[in-house]
Structures are given as C-alpha cells and as structure tokens.
Amino acid sequence: MPNTSQLCSVDELSDRLNDPTLRVLDGSWYLPSAQRNTIAEYQQQHIPGAQFFDIDMVSDTQSELPHMLPSADIFSTHVGNLGISNRHEVVVYDTAGLFSAARVWWMFKVFGHQRVRVLNGGMPAWIAHGGAISAAQVQLQAEVYESSEPAGLVVNHADLLANCHTADYTVLDARSAARFAGRAPEPRAGLPSGHIPGSKSLPFDQLLLDGQLRSAAELGALFESLQDQPEPKFITSCGSGVTAAIISLALFEAGYGLQRLYDGAWAEWASLPESPIEVA
Prior knowledge:
Blueprint: E1 7-8, H1 10-16, E2 22-26, H2 38-44, E3 51-52, H3 72-81, E4 89-93, H4 101-110, E5 116-119, H5 122-128, E6 154-155, H6 157-166, E7 170-173, H7 177-181, E8 200-201, E9 208-209, E10 212-213, H8 216-226, E11 234-237, H9 244-253, E12 260-262, H10 265-269
Parallel strand pairs: 1-5, 2-3, 2-4, 4-5, 6-12, 7-8, 7-11, 11-12
Antiparallel strand pairs: 9-10
GO molecular function: thiosulfate-cyanide sulfurtransferase activity
Keywords: Pyruvate, Repeat, Transferase
Domain Rhodanese: 18-135, 165-278
C-alpha cells in the first residue's frame, strides 16, 4: 500500500535534500506577542535549500482579519515565484516543532496540491538529529503553478452560525482550555474569550508529544471519542486559523481526510455582535 502519511521524517528529508523534484519551505510564524522576527531568523539559519513561506504575505491582504486564505490566483502567483510547480513535492517545517507549518500544509491541500507533507518535529528535530544548517540565500527560477478552488473546505461565519442550530458538524477548537472556558484573556486586544456554542475544546498541544504529532492510532482514538455524528464530520477552529490546521493535519493523519476549517476563527467570531458566545 502507498504511504499516505502527511508527515516527513528527518531521515527521509536528509536523504532527499538534493532531490530536484522536492521543495522545502520554512513556514514559521508566531503570535505578535512573541516578538519573533521569523524572516530574520530564517535568514540566519534554515534547512539547506529551504525558502521562507510568509503566511501573513500569502493571504487576503484586503481582509481586516489576520492571514486569511488568499484567492487561488494569488496563491498560485506566490507559490510559482518560489520555484514550485504542480509537479513538485513540498515539505514544510517551522522552528517551533509543529506549529505554523500545519497552516502552510493546509493551504497547499486546500488549493489542490496533494504532494505536500510536514516535517515531523520541525527545525528542533532536524537540529537534534545533526541536520545541516545554512544561511545561504535561496533563489529558484519561477515556475507556473495552477491552484484549484477550495471546493467547500473553508467555512465562513454564516456556516458556523447555522451549525450552532443544526449541529451537523463537530466543531473542534484548538485554543487553550482556559481561553475556551472564558477564564483566560485572548491574545488579541478587545476580544472576549469563550467559545462557539456546541464546540469542543481540543488544545492543539494534546495532539503532540515531544514536538511531534502523536501516532495515527492515538489520534484516531481521540477523534472517535469527540465525534458526535454517525458519519464523522468536523470543523476545526482556533484563534486565527493557524492551530486549527494542526487539528486538520491530525485528522488527516488519523484517516478522516481533509475536514473543513473555519478560517476567520475566533478573531472573527468574537468580533461580531451577532455571534453567540458560551463560557465555562
């Protein structure tokens, strides 16, 4: 049977680093409160041959919400300029271990790129295993890239409002349990904490062990315990669409395929007066 895992090991990436059919991306991103300059960090050290993928730049820059999914045309332009075509395999990592790389993986998946995986454990695992580090500038020749339309994989505010009544989908929230319950403040000023009615708390760090995604068997058992419908249908959410993608990656790895994601996430939900909010 073919390997359908969405994860790439450090050993495999090391062996294939000079493969011309492979493209490696540093998709590191942190909350503004972390005061990290990910572009500068990339320039100082990255996996040899890797290019930087900026989720704030490859986004719908007309939206007031953070790093919303861009149009297919905008995504195609940015990806093509990175020297990536539809024939290339893509491996994404981040410097946290497994954090924002999942968002980049999800973006490629949503736009129809099947051959994309996440480096399990990211840069920390790479360094721990003695992987080479480079500060060399990487500039590849631009390629033509053609994206597919998302085809219902991205959920909007109206969809979530409707689901509050129909409960057709199990909504999984990747934020901390304290933010979900309304006991801790949101990192974005002016937003109340709490959660979407009927949603379930699944802090993203529960899906990880030592910075790597838990086994498919462990993840499958966890999602089965959270499933409300006879047919598994999930919507993932979080603060701004980044850690929701970690749940999406875990669902895919557990055999549930690419489930739907609420891209506006809590940043949108909590900012709109018509959104019901539950606490505790």
